[in-house]
Amino acid sequence: MKETGRQQPDRAVLLQGTLDMLVLRALSCSARHGYDIARWIEESSADALEVEEGSLYPALHRMERKGWISAEWGQSAANRRAKFYKLTRAGRAQLTVEIREWELLVRAISQVLHSPATE
Questions:
Q1: What's this model's pTM, rounded to 2 decimal places?
Q2: Is 28 helix (H, G, I), strand (E, B) or coil?
Q3: Got the DSSP string for 10-24?
């Protein structure tokens, strides 16, 4: 997870609104702390996606306020105190909605990109 800096040329830029979906997906199997969420997204995308700390923590706080995730303090694998985030029932429902909307958007964009050019 990068704290700040410029985007590397071989990494994709996260579209606005996709971070919530990716975080919810990261939490769909187990509770994770912030660094682990970012690392999971990066590893799952073969390092094509980079999650910056300045985006991740505000997103986590926003999703906690919406009731999509809950948080509690615990010990990380490195034996440090860390806040662990867990998907709630409302968060699981939201993930389903976001995946459906994302798949519709991807299909629509693909249709536009592959439609014949006309003048």
A1: 0.84
A2: coil
A3: TSBPPPTTHHHHHHH
